[in-house]
Amino acid sequence: MKKIGLFAIPLFLFVGGVAFLLKGLYSDPKELNSSVVGNPIPDFKLPDLYDSTVIHTPDIFDGKVTLLNVWGVWCITCAVELPFLTDLVDLEGVRIIGLYYDQELDPEFGTRSIESVQKEAYEMLNRFGDPYKFHILDIKRDLSLDLGVTGAPEHFLIDKKGVVRWHHIGDVNENVWVSKLKPAITVLEAE
Fold this sequence. Notes:
It is built from five helices and seven strands, in the order αβββαβαβαββα. By secondary structure, it is of the alpha/beta class.
């Protein structure tokens, strides 16, 4: 009887390990369950990227379906998706707000100035397209951390009441637009 137990335990561990690895192999890393979906956008008071006298709060989402796009000039994928996001604004009327995320602005991590980031952001948006109504500057990543942001780009679709209804990690491209984002926006606009 002891021999069967000695054989069964390693077999059980092996089968469990294989099942765990197969689940990870066939899951979509862009489809993480976000704890903020279904909840109001976290409270914040953050300055505008270009005008620090303008303070943004969750009121910016009242009455408007909005795509909040986490981005940074250091993010290559962000640059790649800018032309497509600009087309969404121009052709589809999507409202997009930028949440600018830059680790090097925090004195604990880097030495960049806000002025240099503003200049780089302006140049990047001039070159690839500027889909944003405005940009929230998240220097200490407070809002980003509250949203559970893992990097950039990330997107949060926020309804007219300020509730996060959809979360996407990675770029928004034609496939994501047609299969996920456009249907979600259509439903939220009708509410």
